[in-house]
Amino acid sequence: MRTNLPLDKAWKLLNHGPVTIITSAHGGKSNVMAASWAMPLDYDPPKILLVLDAAAHTRELVDASGEFGLQVPKRRIAEETVGVGQVSGRDEDKFARFNLKTFPAQKIAAPMLEECVAWLECKVIPDATQRYDLFIAEVVACYFDADRFHDNQWDFGDDPQERTMHYISNGEFFLTGERFKVPTIEE
């Protein structure tokens, strides 16, 4: 079940460094791509930092629309995650090719993907993009899978298919792993 998260807590959905999937739409076209270089940047207003290569089709759509969806995929769609990172959306509809199920976003035009554990809807803050391919974006809506995120923290349970992934290279990932706690100074 998707549940809204207060915007000032949006960083908690990305702070464990997972691979992400970017969705974009403009002018009747939409695209999807994998992205490993996304991170939380600020709390209020919530911002994220994302790298999108100038040659990417998604970049064209984001440049034109000024917005994008940022999703944290589950292990169960690892093959699709690699696939959308290797195939160009200029050549074909990646949503159809990889049989990706979508739903409408709350505040942006880009479609959002099912089979994820977190979703952030983002609007680009102009100026950092051209020279370094960096996108700073404000999070305008965020939500999570209530089975995997509760009490303001992740709980992936025992099913590895429900965990998030960390990309290494050449189609290899690490799964989010064992949870443990280290006492803090206050404890």
From TrEMBL:
- Can you give the residue ranges of the Flavin reductase like domain? 13-151
Q: Which InterPro entries match?
A: Flavin_Rdtase-like_dom, Flavoredoxin, Split_barrel_FMN-bd
Q: What cofactor is needed?
A: FMN
* Gene Ontology molecular functions: FMN binding; oxidoreductase activity, acting on the CH-NH group of donors, NAD or NADP as acceptor
The UniProt keyword set, sorted, is: Flavoprotein
Presence of the UniProt keyword tRNA processing in the record: no
One Pfam family from the UniProt entry? Flavin_Reduct
Please give the family membership noted in the entry. Answer: Belongs to the flavoredoxin family.
What protein am I looking at? Flavin reductase family protein
Organism equals Sapientia aquatica
